[in-house]
Every structure is written in structure tokens, then in C-alpha cells.
Amino acid sequence: MNKIQVLLLCFVLFFVALFSYIYYEASRFDDNQISAYTHANHYKIKSVRNDHFQWYAHIMVDKSEGEQIFKLYPFEHKYYSQFTTFIQNRAGSWYYRIPKKGDLYAVIALSTDKQSVEIYELMGD
Hints:
Elements: H1 3-27, H2 29-38, E1 43-51, E2 54-61, H3 63-72, E3 94-99, E4 104-110, E5 116-123
Antiparallel strand pairs: 1-2, 2-5, 3-4, 4-5
């Protein structure tokens, strides 16, 4: 092989590896976000939605994981917002707003039985 072929082969291998890594990270995005907010090891994803600067995940956890999540944040019984209709207040659920950088913030909602967790990541408000 001459030098041009070797360089071309290295170039192709580099970009295949780069795109494989990007694909892997994109496919793990939801799990990484859920783990970052809840620190839960065992959960079942019920639904995930990601569009227009809004990310939402609904997961089910066992009661012990729910108790650990409850201890992580100072939850309140109601989420107060004048602007966001995306978050629906449910009777008896626990809410906590997690400040992030700039306009980004997150709200974590925990059901009273501590087995259902909803995570909202939003811009603005």
C-alpha cells in the first residue's frame, strides 16, 4: 500500500470510530439523564419524550429506590408555575425544581407511593 491509501484508510477508520461513539452516546442519553437525576440503579422506563428544548421521562422504581429519591431532594406537595402547562399537578405527588445553568431547569415529580417518577427538563419559565 502506498502512503495515500494508508492515510485514506486511517481517515475512514477515524470517522467510523467517531460516528460509532456519537451513536453510542446518543443511544445512552436517556439512561444517563435518568441516572443523573435519580441515582437509581433499577428502573423501568414507561415513556420518554424529547422535543424543542424539552425532555421528559416517566419511570417506575421499586419502593426502596423511591425512598432514596425522596431523600435526595426537598420535595413539596405542589409545583408552582405561572408559565409552564407541560407539568400537570397531581394530587398527592411530590415536586422539586432543580435549578440548572441559564434558562435550563428540571422538575422531578415523585408519586405518593414512591414508585412512579417523572422528570421534566425545560427551558425558560
